[in-house]
Batch of 3 targets.
Target 1
Amino acid sequence: ITIGWRYEKFKDIPIEDYESARGEPLNKRQFRIPAHDRVNLLIEQGHITIREIKYAELQASKYQAMLLKSRKRAMRFGAQQVQEMKELTTRKLKQFTTGKSIKKEENELWERAQQVTIEKYLATSSKVKIKDGTSLGHLSTLELIRSPQA
């Protein structure tokens, strides 16, 4: 076992010889090298200090924690997608049971979105009032009147 990128060419052997000599395939556990042996290999063959090994272990732990945090965050986004799917399913079921067309529902959603936007705007600007009787169907037909400044 070596650690590094150096390539060492060995003489070619026929595939039949290799197959007959290789024996049964190894399982995962048989490939694993114990931690103390790996550290010894790094020190003896890789000329790595124990300090460098400890630093690398700390970095690996740090990155594992970051990965775990990222996975948890992704799970939360998954919950958001489930919520969106739930809302979509509810709308589709409502469409089916009430017989509303998709276009009519889109118009209602658009009007409601405009109303919410205007309400938010009015909440932040006390000098703007909506003239009674105007339609909220299209923003271009909405009339806003500025109150006289006191």
Target 2
Amino acid sequence: AGAPMFWFSGPLTEALGNDVVLVLSLLAYVARFLNYAWMKHPYHALPAEALRGITFAMFWSSGSMYAHNISPPGMKATMLLTMNAMYGGLGQSLGAIIGGKLQTNFGTAKTFIYSGIFDFCFVGALVMYLLTRSDRAFT
């Protein structure tokens, strides 16, 4: 699901704007987390795995376009490198450490529920921030 979504993510981002695509991708992560939390059979993971391609492709393409758009002249590669380091280095490392601690203390299902709730609250805060910007894509 990821490869086709990367193909369509450019036109989708141009049509909806970086802000909207970012919010949609984060909301899809909420759906994935809750799906994992409430699944009763291994086959129930298939919708979440199908969403993985969509969520990552939408997030990564909109993030890359945003980093490209805000970078100073001659610094586009540096901005993309910084974004990659934050996502792949800091984000995944902290996610593994915090997620592991939550899973040990609360169990797998509750960890996914808490992750979904946290992500939903983060999306709410992000939307509030995006609505205050003068160059927003939200109306």
Target 3
Amino acid sequence: LFEGMAGLSKSMTKGRLRELQSLSHQYVGEEGSPWKLYACSSRIQFHNISTGQTITAIKKKHIRQAVRENLHSCEILKARRTFAEMKQQAYRSMWEQHAAKTIQYMYRLWKGRQQVKRKLWIVDRLRLKKREKETKAAQVIQDAFRRRIDET
């Protein structure tokens, strides 16, 4: 148990648990299992690295206990790996959807600008016609003003 959760003296910190789990890969045994089997020239012993229990006189009940805990640990390990894979897949899917939406937005923006550029000649043509009308009207006013000035 993690320190503070149980309030017991036998509780351990999360860091210590991670350290013990990483140690399990250095020794012989099932992956994720707390039980390790050591074979020396003088004896064979079981060692539970999470509790620190060491068994030198191996009996059937100890083997059953180790097998039961190995199966349980194996299932927990499989569940953790499945969860991690699902989490990674969901994270990747989220970013792929975000990227797709961003690319779609950028494409629509670009497509809209292209359509505006294609239709821009119409606006330019209307501005030119308006300017021509304004120029003709200004010339008519200037001609009328000049005639009045010339008459006086």
